[in-house]
């Protein structure tokens, strides 16, 4: 970007404000309507508007054409020209034509009166060429003169037109002929005597290109579709007999790219030049086919204008080129040397040069929407100062205060009532229904059947009813990474009003593991007629049969969770409860107290989840050796206990009022939280796999670099015809190719393992989310909600950042801010170091630096969740001590599992003894209960007080 800017001198807006202008829409010429006039600006639009402007230049500005220095000094220098205000007298003509205007030109197109100096306008329409005469009518009384557009004659075209050029074809004096180029490349010539004929150039013309006439040599120049600049003599083209015509151009030059524009100028008595603006180059060729210069452009040009300063017969004449880039910069060249650069106010589609009143050599620009401006090159630079770097240390307290102030400003400027109105309007405009159709059927996806032989798939039906007409509507199906979808996106444009569409997709397990959640969410985003985008969301639960199948219950497991239901289920017998909750897995009439479920895919490895129901209480136990498998089963069990899901079927969540009431009445609490060590172990596995994938990608980059080196050496030896050396190079190529294929296979396998690790980590986070959400004595408030939200999203790694890098700032903020922080640990922890993270990010090839964020996240997350678990445990202990209930896990041993009679009995005796000892040691005065209650109250007040003081959202 240039330091200088093009100074605005005069501007206006054409009547058509739509994007209806191109490089052929602007024409600057002296029409000779009156004596001593300056150049006029003729603008034609694709909507048919034809306007002629003549900027007046104001009354208090000097005429720079005058040679009176005293007057110029009195009125100011040229660099201090003020911006002129558009006046109504600046418009000479403004008329609406019935057809679009493709091009405008001016010249002597009639022979009625050779002494008349006035020029005529030639306007090119898609199927017509019209010649107009500007007639000035003297005004009466106080009314001024006005100009009318009189049609002299027109020519109908047989084919659509593309461009127009004129000139004294054949070397005639005092007359101009017209040539129209059609879209198929053919030429139509019109002479003033009513003679017209059509000619076709020798080479094939599939793409039309700019066409210009060279008066000095009486030739036409154009660019062929093969990107060759060709020159045809007019006498050869105008020859009537095909047998006598010369088909080949007199000379041709390959320019190697499409020509955006082409202009012709005579620079001396013996030479004319052809200037071609390409997509990447600026070329100048003489009229004899010799290249004068080629300028390589390091920017994308939009339009250009060339002109000659001085008279061509003078030795001091110079060829000037003004090129506009797509960034809005104007670059001025003298031949191939740049002499000035300035920034335009907007990016034009056409540029010209005109001599207007008070400003000779003005730059005229036309924008795509009709913004017409006249300016000049300014000499006052717009300096930019680099702001000072903010080297202040990172302070969490200061950032927290700034974030609180910004949140208050946002809340003050946002009206929450508008959201409900907008949501209601979106629901009225588009009605979205999502449901599962039929029962699961055997999967037919080829990639899945090879991996999972016994998998099934279900049909998801999406129905959309649109009330108003919409410009765009998009449907997106979002599922867990472990769930595949036949087609996850639909896009529609110009949706008709009152239309209904239904789309069916198939969902199936894609990997041999359990997903973290079986919820499929359909998002419907659309743009209404006001241009506002709205989003609707509907969720549906997939059948459990797709992912789980029954197995033999296990008598012992490493991880156990206990659920308490209040009020208890309607049927109190153990067998009837599990049979009613899971009828698709338990046989009819079964009275088993335990149910084991294992993944449909990969279930042969012994991984399973066991559900044990108490015989005479309202408690259930979920146990497994794998934490990742428990999330899906636990979520399904809670949903069916609360009635948010029809038993044995998958329906939309909370879609009926009765289920909402039942869900609000039934309370399910989970006693205890799984060990944090399982989550930390899964994070470490994810980090190790990501490091392995990174190392394999580095090895692949090295191997492919060697392959390119060997290929270059092979080409060199092949050119030298050294057959003996080819044997060694071929051996190296084969070995290197084998190494590249091996690394590619390893990367594919490792990425599949990384995907499985991401799914497992997501499931473990989902399990912690369910435990904290249904904990009986968890400290409530906003921060616990944000803690559970932190554990509810999917684990994804981007190309630039890993999951650990993205989550570390959030976990660190929760760890150091709020009631969960510990002042003792806070003082001992390492302060935030920006330089460490910057170094770890820049040297990402070092395996130690890749795991730095993972180690920090593991430590922060372990301490944060450890504090939450301690508080939940303390609150549970206080509640159990105050209630005096002797119930423990002994309820599950009233009906032991089939394979663990003796062990369960021993466990029952131990639990009874433990309960009796606790009852005997409990103080009778209740002092311990009061003390723990005060501790719990202090904990709760800490949450409440912090929310009232800061109210800082995360």
From TrEMBL:
<dbReference type="GO" id="GO:0034464">
    <property type="term" value="C:BBSome"/>
</dbReference>
<feature type="domain" description="PTHB1 platform">
    <location>
        <begin position="543"/>
        <end position="643"/>
    </location>
</feature>
<dbReference type="InterPro" id="IPR026511">
    <property type="entry name" value="PTHB1"/>
</dbReference>
<dbReference type="Pfam" id="PF23338">
    <property type="entry name" value="PTHB1_hp"/>
</dbReference>
<dbReference type="Pfam" id="PF23337">
    <property type="entry name" value="PTHB1_pf"/>
</dbReference>
<feature type="compositionally biased region" description="Acidic residues">
    <location>
        <begin position="904"/>
        <end position="913"/>
    </location>
</feature>
<dbReference type="Pfam" id="PF14728">
    <property type="entry name" value="PTHB1_GAE"/>
</dbReference>
<dbReference type="InterPro" id="IPR055362">
    <property type="entry name" value="PTHB1_pf_dom"/>
</dbReference>
<dbReference type="InterPro" id="IPR028074">
    <property type="entry name" value="PHTB1_GAE_dom"/>
</dbReference>
<dbReference type="InterPro" id="IPR028073">
    <property type="entry name" value="PHTB1_N_dom"/>
</dbReference>
<feature type="domain" description="PTHB1 GAE">
    <location>
        <begin position="456"/>
        <end position="540"/>
    </location>
</feature>
<feature type="domain" description="PTHB1 N-terminal">
    <location>
        <begin position="1"/>
        <end position="381"/>
    </location>
</feature>
<dbReference type="InterPro" id="IPR055363">
    <property type="entry name" value="PTHB1_hp_dom"/>
</dbReference>
<protein>
    <recommendedName>
        <fullName>PTHB1 N-terminal domain-containing protein</fullName>
    </recommendedName>
</protein>
<dbReference type="GO" id="GO:0060271">
    <property type="term" value="P:cilium assembly"/>
</dbReference>
<feature type="region of interest" description="Disordered">
    <location>
        <begin position="875"/>
        <end position="934"/>
    </location>
</feature>
<dbReference type="InterPro" id="IPR036322">
    <property type="entry name" value="WD40_repeat_dom_sf"/>
</dbReference>
<dbReference type="Pfam" id="PF14727">
    <property type="entry name" value="PHTB1_N"/>
</dbReference>
<feature type="domain" description="PTHB1 hairpin">
    <location>
        <begin position="680"/>
        <end position="773"/>
    </location>
</feature>
<dbReference type="GO" id="GO:0016020">
    <property type="term" value="C:membrane"/>
</dbReference>
